[in-house]
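$ ./design --mode recover --in tokens.txt
reading tokens...
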């Protein structure tokens, strides 16, 4: 009966990294690597020969202190044993050498220096990385500012970065392999190599301008102790920007003191270290290697596990460190309980990673065996279900009437003898079965009821008749009446092995891909059998299976159509069968691509590339020139935040089509991305660089948009194509792009677009440069207006929007304006419209518009109160900026009005003066006596009197007038 192992015991033995094990457990579990391929050497070995790990150890030990540097590469796929070999070398080299093992866990600044400083006296440890956070931030700011001043560029960009420097400083202590720039950093100008500046600043700030002094001091110190240091780097890719420093010193073969064993994944070596790689990544290193040792084939298969016994010994060592189980002592398990040798062999051949075969020790031990030991069900049950690291089991025996537990036992532990699957009794009893009856294998003799399953209607006779007709068609060219059965078998096989309907990359394995699918024929594949009496589909592609194909293949497909079996391992030579099917499918896909090219006027790859370019262009508002590195990177920016999706067209009547189709393009962005990934990617995170660069070189935006604008959607409506995941037809996919291109082609870039972009840009610059003065002027006018009795509120203070972000936006806009003429006219339209819409919606522009409205309101109120006085004329706020002299004039006028708040109003003074002049004509002496008492010589002086003085004067005049009316002369 199955009893799970203790997870704590399993965790001590099965570790992801070799360095995580205790040395005793490592020694017990280590399996000798007796097959290591020598693919390059300068130490007397033969290229192409296999050596063991002890030969590698002997080569490293053949050196003395202060000998010149020597470099050894250990190359292999992920999980092939690079860290295992480095760990073994560390334990073996301790007697005569000084191993310095830098694992992936130590691939950060403090970890690397700790390893090196451990073996140095305190007086030689001159570098430190324990600086306070605020000190790091200040040093970064100072270094970047000085660098910008020294080179005369990028100073404004450095000012934008100041708020982000604390985050950058925090990231310095992360593992260097994961050191990434914050995603929200403002984009660097094209002429500012910010990444190089930052790494230079990091080295200087942390005292790591070069590791050479530390390495040289370590070599000299250990030489005095009679030892030679051996640097063991599990994976050079984890060292980030320190990689160049290390390699510069290590590959200086004249420098004394070090042996360096460097682990490399095959993909990294191919990309960075070949002669055709990037020189900045040290493409010359191959010529300076002492030797290159390879642990695995590029397909993922590990060399030192090439024999079943090697695999069994590896797993037996690990399982032997776990508590023994009496139930697993049977010889049938060979010390591998709960696995048998047969089960291990099958597990190893079924290993996959991301859908691709990957036979490595890590995948077997860490991803498959380790988790299965701690589950409540035995491994043959849990591993029989869907598993991310195992290929789905394919049954080769009749299993329809068997429970899943028994199917798993037969599949993993069963041994084939005499046409049947047998499970050893000892194995069956260990899992609670007395015995398991043998089950016949598939295929069985032709016509057997086991082949077709136990059904009431035995199809044997019909099958035999179809076989005779097939043979007559193949040999004599006779008609084939039962060809539909052959088509059904071919279709079942194609659906199991290939996907011929989809137009996609031949090595595609990406979850985010959503390819175009050929749908003619409904649910059935369009299969055509020439010269069989079959009718060929007109005008549309089909899969051709002529009678000249190998007879055995067609007979097996016909038998498969009648069989109740659901798996494809019943074919005698499945590899050859798959190759034939791939050739047929390839011809079919080529026909489909030709058909699409006739419908759309350009190859499907060009159409998909152009659709994704157009979608990215309208979403980002950038020109996306494929001849520049910035354009290529922007095109591959798959994940855009909602705030990064730009709008180019407002919902105005004249722009309604462009606005609607622009929104539809953004809504379809995920669909276009799925198409792009399906054609230009191997996996989700792995692109086909050759195909991508080819399309970048050939892509012409103007030609593409012209072709798209003239595309007939009505002609596409009957085309049998749709996107597999979204279920959108070809017409639905292309319609927004076609309508947008047609409307854009009809739109002529107007002077208004450029002028309004320039005006808004100038307003933004004005707001940034004179924000303080405008703020003060608005507050002063608001205060004076309230003193004059007006009701008017100034806009909010500009401090709510101030940050380095807007200065960066302004510089980007100005750069885009300078580069405007370098883009095709069809691109200029979107760039101009996007920048205009983008700038009009940002906070500084909204604030500046509020300042203009405030000024206009104050001017209107002033004109209503004082219609005689006019402020200096100016243009409307829609076409010009508010200048400080405008606000100054208004403030001066309001200040004068405030100072005259106690003066008799002008119209009252004028009316009073007229009345006094009339009275003086008849009552000269009386009126003049009243005026004299108040010091007024003439009526015109009334306008210069205060309210208080005027009220007393008017009271005396009124009293005098009443007296004269009561006592006429």
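writing sequence...
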């Amino acid at each position: 009966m199955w009893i799970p192992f203790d997870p704590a015991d399993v965790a001590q033995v099965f570790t992801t990294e070799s360095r995580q094990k205790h040395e005793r457990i490592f020694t017990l579990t280590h399996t000798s690597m007796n097959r290591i391929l020598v693919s390059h050497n300068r130490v007397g070995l033969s290229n192409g020969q296999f050596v063991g790990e002890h030969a590698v150890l002997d080569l490293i030990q053949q050196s003395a202190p202060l000998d010149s540097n020597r470099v050894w590469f250990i190359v292999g796929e992920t999980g092939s044993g690079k860290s295992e070999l480095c760990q073994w070398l560390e334990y073996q080299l301790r007697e005569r050498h000084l191993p310095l093992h830098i694992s992936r866990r130590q691939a950060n600044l403090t970890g690397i220096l700790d390893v090196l400083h451990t073996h140095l006296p305190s007086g030689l440890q001159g570098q430190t990385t324990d600086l306070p956070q605020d000190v790091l931030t200040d040093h970064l700011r100072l270094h970047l500012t000085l660098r910008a001043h020294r080179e005369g560029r990028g100073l404004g960009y450095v000012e934008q970065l100041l708020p982000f420097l604390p985050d950058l400083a925090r990231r310095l202590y992360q593992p260097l392999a994961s050191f990434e720039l914050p995603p929200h950093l403002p984009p660097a100008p094209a002429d500012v190599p910010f990444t190089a500046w930052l790494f230079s600043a990091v080295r200087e700030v942390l005292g790591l301008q070069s590791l050479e002094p530390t390495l040289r001091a370590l070599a000299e110190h250990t030489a005095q102790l009679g030892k030679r240091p051996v640097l063991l780097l599990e994976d050079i890719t984890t060292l980030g920007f320190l990689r160049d420093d290390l390699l510069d010193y290590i590959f200086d073969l004249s420098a004394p003191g070090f042996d360096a064993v460097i682990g490399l994944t095959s993909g990294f070596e191919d990309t960075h270290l070949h002669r055709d790689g990037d020189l900045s990544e040290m493409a010359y290193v191959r010529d300076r290697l002492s030797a290159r040792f390879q642990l695995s084939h590029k397909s993922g298969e590990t060399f030192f596990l090439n024999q079943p016994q090697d695999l069994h010994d590896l797993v037996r060592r690990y399982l032997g460190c776990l508590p023994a189980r009496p139930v697993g002592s049977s010889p049938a398990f060979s010390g591998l309980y709960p696995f048998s040798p047969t089960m291990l062999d099958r597990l190893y051949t079924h290993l996959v990673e991301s859908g691709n075969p990957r036979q490595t020790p890590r995948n077997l031990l860490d991803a498959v065996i380790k988790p299965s030991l701690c589950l409540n069900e035995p491994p043959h049950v849990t591993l029989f279900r869907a598993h991310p690291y195992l290929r789905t089991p394919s049954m080769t025996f009749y299993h329809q009437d068997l429970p899943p537990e028994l199917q798993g036992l037969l599949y993993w532990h069963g041994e084939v003898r005499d046409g049947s699957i047998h499970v050893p009794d000892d194995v069956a009893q260990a899992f609670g079965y007395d015995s398991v009856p043998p089950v016949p294998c598939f295929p069985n003799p032709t016509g057997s009821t086991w082949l077709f399953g136990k059904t009431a209607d035995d199809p044997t006779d019909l099958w035999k008749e179809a076989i005779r007709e097939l043979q007559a068609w193949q040999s004599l060219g006779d008609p084939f009446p039962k060809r539909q059965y052959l088509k059904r078998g071919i279709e079942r096989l194609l659906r199991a092995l290939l996907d011929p309907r989809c137009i996609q990359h031949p090595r595609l394995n990406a979850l985010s891909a959503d390819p175009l699918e050929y749908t003619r024929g409904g649910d059935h594949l369009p299969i055509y059998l020439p010269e069989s009496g079959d009718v060929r589909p007109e005008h549309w592609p089909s899969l051709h299976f002529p009678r000249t194909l190998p007879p055995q293949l067609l007979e097996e497909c016909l038998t498969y159509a009648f069989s109740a079996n659901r798996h494809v391992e019943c074919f005698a030579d499945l590899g050859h069968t798959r190759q034939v099917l791939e050739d047929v499918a390839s011809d079919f896909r080529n026909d489909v691509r030709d058909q699409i090219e006739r419908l759309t006027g350009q190859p499907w790859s060009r159409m998909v590339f152009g659709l994704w370019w157009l979608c990215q262009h309208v979403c980002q508002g950038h020109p996306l020139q494929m001849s520049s590195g910035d354009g290529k990177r922007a095109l591959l920016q798959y994940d855009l935040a909602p705030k990064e999706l730009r709008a180019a067209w407002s919902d105005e009547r004249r722009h309604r089509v462009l606005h609607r189709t622009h929104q539809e393009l953004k809504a379809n962005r995920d669909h276009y991305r799925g198409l792009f990934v399906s054609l230009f990617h191997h996996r989700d995170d792995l692109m086909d660089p050759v195909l991508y660069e080819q399309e970048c070189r050939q892509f012409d935006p103007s030609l593409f948009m012209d072709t798209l604008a003239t595309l007939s959607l009505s002609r596409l409506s009957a085309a049998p194509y749709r996107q597999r995941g979204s279920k959108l037809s070809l017409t639905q996919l292309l319609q927004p792009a076609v309508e947008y291109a047609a409307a854009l082609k009809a739109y002529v870039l107007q002077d208004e677009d450029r002028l309004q972009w320039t005006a808004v840009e100038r307003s933004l610059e004005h707001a940034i440069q004179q924000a303080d003065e405008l703020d003060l002027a608005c507050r002063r006018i608001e205060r004076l207006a309230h003193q004059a009795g007006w009701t008017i509120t100034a806009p909010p203070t500009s401090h709510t929007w101030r940050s380095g972000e807007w200065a960066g936006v302004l510089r980007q806009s100005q750069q885009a304006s300078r580069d405007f003429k370098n883009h095709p006219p069809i691109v200029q339209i979107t760039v101009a419209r996007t920048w205009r819409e983008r700038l009009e919606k940002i906070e500084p522009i909204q604030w500046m518009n509020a300042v203009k409205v405030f000024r206009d309101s104050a001017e209107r109120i002033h004109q209503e109160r004082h219609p005689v006085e006019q402020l200096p004329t100016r243009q409307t706020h829609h076409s010009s900026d508010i200048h400080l002299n405008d606000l100054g004039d208004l403030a001066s006028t309001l200040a004068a009005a405030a100072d005259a708040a106690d003066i008799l109003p002008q119209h009252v003074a004028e009316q009073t003066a007229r009345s006094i002049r009339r009275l003086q004509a008849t009552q000269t002496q009386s009126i003049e006596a009243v005026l004299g008492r108040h010091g007024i010589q003439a009526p015109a002086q009334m306008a210069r009197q205060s309210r208080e003085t005027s009220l007393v004067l008017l009271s005396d005049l009124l009293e005098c007038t009443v007296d004269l009316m009561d006592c006429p002369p």
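exit 0
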